[in-house]
Amino acid sequence: ALSHLRRVTPAVAQALLVALRDVGRVQQDALAAAERFRLAEGEIVPALAAALRDESAATAYAAAQVLAALGRGREAAERQPAIVAALADAIRDSRSRRPVYVLEGGEIKYLGQLDDLLYRALVGVAGVAAGSSAE
User: In this structure, how many other beta carbons lie within 10 angstroms of the beta carbon of residue 58?
Assistant: First the structure.
């Protein structure tokens, strides 16, 4: 059900984070959904920013994916500074220097180091922010 949503609310974000602790197929659906979010309702950035420091690297990665998607979305301009700051802070945190693994097709897949994945999310958002300020 999450994969059909485009608008993230605090309740949807919480469901997403819970789904990342479920079985492999549910994790895959949650990550796919995270990449499609574009609109947000309410103060969603603080909860997702906190999840960037989750004990599960996969959960932190998914939070970064949601933040990056929201940072590129139609309503992104007002959220971009907070998203950029949250991602930058998470990258500086020593806990971000750990591997990210997810279950995919019944197998464990290595996605990379969390700090590298956070950096990619940051560049994606900051690039959009830089491009939008030039207009």
Answer: 19
**Degrees (nearest 5) of the Cα angle 64, 95, 12?**
30
As for how many domains the chain has, the answer is: 1
Q: And the tokens for 47?
A: 């909860």
φ/ψ (deg, to 5) at 126: -65, -35
Residue 74 vs residues 9, 57, 85: alpha-carbon distances, Å: 15, 28, 19
Question: What is the C-alpha to C-alpha distance for residues 25 and 128, in angstroms, rounded to an integer?
Answer: 31
Residue 37 three-state SS? coil
pLDDT tens across 101-129, in order?
Answer: 987 777 888 999 999 999 999 999 988 65
Token pair 């989750």 is found at: 54
At 131, list the tokens.
Answer: 């491009």
Query: pLDDT tens digits, residue range 19-78?
Result: 877 777 787 787 787 777 777 777 888 888 999 999 989 889 988 988 888 888 777 788
